[in-house]
């Protein structure tokens, strides 16, 4: 299944990646949301936020060191 | 090393970091640092500004090895855990201004958020007004964040950029060791370019190597655990996340106990070390500080740790803190134990207006 929505939070400082993820989670009741981040801090924060809201998170690291987080529920 | 990295990235990371700071800071006081000032990024930036001659307040001039350790410890952790990465381009000039005003506010209170918690742990009840001001400033920052405030995205940069701040810290360390005196004043007498206090808080310091090692250890732990004394309150209000708050609570508890054990706990408002009793300006100074740190994305320690891992925008914020500390003293805004400096309140108001203007006007411009 393709991502229903992509949040590109690369290059943003705290807490913008978390805020944008939270906004995206509130907009839908389920499905898949892809979140792009490019720091370990943002990756961990987004994972924590999504898991707390009951979403599962899959992580893949891109060649340029950024991360694709697949949030599913 | 991987297991340590994973542990520090877990919910225990901020707690372990907080305990380390809470134990080490009072020990540094016992070994010579000024009272309730085992670690204070604002005060230490002020001392470094003075040592470099950016202000001439003779009582507060010293190159604090803790700050050097913070940056280099974070660099070591970032290198060890594969997070050392050059990046820049997120409104560095605005971050410089935020760094300046954050430290000006902190020097009206007489301490950054780290020291606010350490002062509380030492029984200095004046810190309560400061922490309330900090919370109010963070709350105001959150209003701007919710309205869409952003300093924009950073971009990956040449690897060399990541090394600039660590190298600057090594240079600072060499200046601390050798303290060159080839400058001349108007009368031709030798003095500077490095100035060290012979009395007052600037002359009080723990042994150099111990301070450096403590800073390195804290920097290492904090880089990996993302310890942040402003993010702690911000995340609690914004997303009900206590991950970072646990670290601050651990810091306060550990520092309280260590102060008790070392005989450094003295409860009260009056005669607290490097503190004044103006509730209004303890609150007002930290209100400005809290707002500026929130708009910049993290507390002063966090900015130094980010700078250590290659974030050149955070490094510019750090340099803004050093320049801001010089401005605070040259413009008679920094407080003393007698109370706020004559122009402290005015500079706090100017700072609030500048930060509010930044909060209202800065938006993400690039469409993702």
Textual characterization of the structure:
The complex is a heterodimer of chains A (73) and B (368). Chain A is α+β, with helices and mostly antiparallel strands and 73 residues long. Chain A is 34% helix and 30% strand. Chain A has helices spanning 16-27, 40-52, and strands spanning 5-8, 32-37, 56-61, 67-72. Chain A has a four-stranded mixed beta sheet with strand order 1-2-4-3, covered by helices on one side. Chain B has helices spanning 2-9, 12-30, 41-51, 65-80, 92-109, 113-121, 126-146, 159-178, 208-225, 231-239, 243-262, 279-296, 300-308, 312-330, 344-361; strands spanning 87-88, 155-156. With 368 residues, chain B is mostly helical. In chain B, strands 1-2 form a two-stranded antiparallel sheet. Chains A and B meet through helix 1 and helix 2 of A and strand 2 and helix 10 of B.
Helicity of chain B, as a percent range: 55-70%
- Give the number of helices of chain B: 15
Helix share of residues of chain A?
25-40%
Strand order, biggest sheet of chain A? 1-2-4-3
Shape of chain A: globular
Radius of gyration of chain A: 11 Å
C-alpha Rg of chain B, in Å? Answer: 19 Å
Write the layout of secondary structure elements.
The complex is a heterodimer of chains A (73) and B (368).
Chain A lengths: L4 E4 L7 H12 L4 E6 L2 H13 L3 E6 L5 E6 L1
Parallel strand pairs in A: 1-2
Antiparallel strand pairs in A: 2-4, 3-4
Chain B lengths: L1 H8 L2 H19 L10 H11 L13 H16 L6 E2 L3 H18 L3 H9 L4 H21 L8 E2 L2 H20 L29 H18 L5 H9 L3 H20 L16 H18 L3 H9 L3 H19 L13 H18 L7
Helix pairs in contact in B: 2-9, 2-11, 3-14, 4-8, 4-9, 4-13, 5-12, 5-14, 5-15, 6-7, 6-11, 7-10, 7-12, 9-13, 10-11, 12-15, 13-14
